[in-house]
Amino acid sequence: MTRASRQRGFTLLETVAVLLIVALLAGAVMLSPSQWFQSARLKDAADRVVFMDRVARQHAQRSGQAVDLVFDIEHGKLYRRQSQGGESGREKGHRLSMPSGFEMEKIIVHNRQNEWGQANVPFSKQGHTPSYAVRITGPNDQATWLVVAGLTGQVLEFDSQDEVEDVFEQLSS
After folding, report:
1. CA distance 96 to 78
2. What's the pTM?
3. How does pLDDT run across 11-33, given as a tens digit for each residue?
4. Which of 48, 71, 104, 168 is 20 to 30 A (C-alpha) from 111?
5. Which uninterrupted H or E stretch holds 95?
6. Quick check: 39 and 99 in contact, CB under 8 A?
């Protein structure tokens, strides 16, 4: 082989190096959107809880009737139902499910934690509730706490249960 013919092609080492760089770049591109997608799905799950709170609050205000927002923890569903003199009536209105892979892990209402079954948040005729918190978890250790202020419906988001407990402690003092 002459010297001129060796300089025309790439060596195996150069080819492997280029393929390795291309693979790393492709991996970085694929990793970034998947993390974005996962955080968007967590936000969607949180938005569903906020939406149902607003729907129940507005319904109570407009109809002048007390309602309950029911968190069906076992089945990952939320729905509104009429309250009738302290008794819960039938399910009514919107019914939402958590996105696939996400669940409502804990609900705190009246300083009582619910981790299974159903948790009810009562809405007065004016649309007021006790302040409550919901922990939403998902794949890859995704989690967030939503704390809903009872009088205003303002929603705050927290990462840890300690932060949530601090908020409830400040509210009770």
Report:
1. 5
2. 0.74
3. 888 888 999 999 888 877 666 66
4. 48
5. strand 87-97
6. no
Between CA 121 and CA 119 the distance in angstroms is 7
| Residues in contact with 133: Cβ distance below 8 Å, sequence separation at least 6, in sequence order | 106, 107, 108, 145, 146, 147, 148, 164, 167, 168
Q: Across the strands, what pairs with 93?
A: none
Burial class (CB in 10 A: 0-12, 13-18, 19+), 108: buried
Condensed to tens digits (0 to 9), the pLDDT of residues 84-124 reads 554 444 556 678 889 989 999 999 998 788 889 899 999 99
* pLDDT tens-place string over residues 47-64: 999 999 999 999 999 999
| All domains in the chain, ordered by first residue | 11-172 (3.55.40.10)
Per the structure block, which two tokens stand in for 95? 């019914």
Output the 3-class SS for 21-81: HHHHHHHHHHHHHHHHHHHHHHHHHHHHHHHHHHHHHHHHHHHCCCEEEEEECCCCEEEEE
Q: For 69-83, give one letter per residue: b (16+ CB within 10 A) or e.
A: bbbbbeebbbbbbbb
